[in-house]
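Listing S7. Sequence submitted for prediction.
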Amino acid sequence: MAEESRGVHEAESRAWEALVATARRTVADGLVVGTSGNVSVRVGDTVLVTPSGVPYDRLTPHDVTGVDLTGRQVLGTLVPTSELPMHLAVYRTTDAGAVVHTHAVHATAVSTLVSELPAVHYMSGALGGPVRVAPYATYGTEELAENMLRALADRSGCLLQNHGTITYGAGLDQAYDRTAQLEWMCRLWLTASAVPGLTPSLLTPEQLAAAGEKLRGYGQRG
């Protein structure tokens, strides 16, 4: 069995605990319903992922689920998330340490309306620029993963048409924060766009670039 090929190392145990906490947070914050969405974190050459169809509040330390970068299961017996191709595509092509995928309501709504989230707030700069929408493809397919990668070029997050969001970061906290910010920006744009007779003002590429540069130094040092 795959899980018998090696034991769960201490670093993987800690990462799994943090992954489960992040997955539960997506539910608590209303970014997913039920078992929609998924979370992963990379530990060396192993990717820990939420298993398919298991409510996050039922996950235990014994349910650790992990694959290598080819998708071969190396930890656990539960079937990994059906969106594994998207997660692995991100890890193979970026320096991501964690990935969060949700079906957030406002972001999904925006994904059905435009091909790119209008630059209504400078936090777009935290994701690398205006957030693109990846064309629709059936969930769990390589086609969806390829569409996503094109939308993620020079970005750390994108929308998935008629589907949801995906963001990545150096760790789980950053990946989650980017997801939450993306949902907030989508809600902001929808709210502003709903005012009759008025059109939201948008930031210029230069303004976004300046904000993105400043955001790179945001927060505490050390």
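Caption to Listing S7: primary sequence and predicted structure tokens for the chain studied. Strands lie at 38-43, 46-49, 66-68, 73-75, 98-102, 133-134, 157-160, 164-169. Helices lie at 10-28, 84-93, 105-111, 142-152, 172-193, 205-215.
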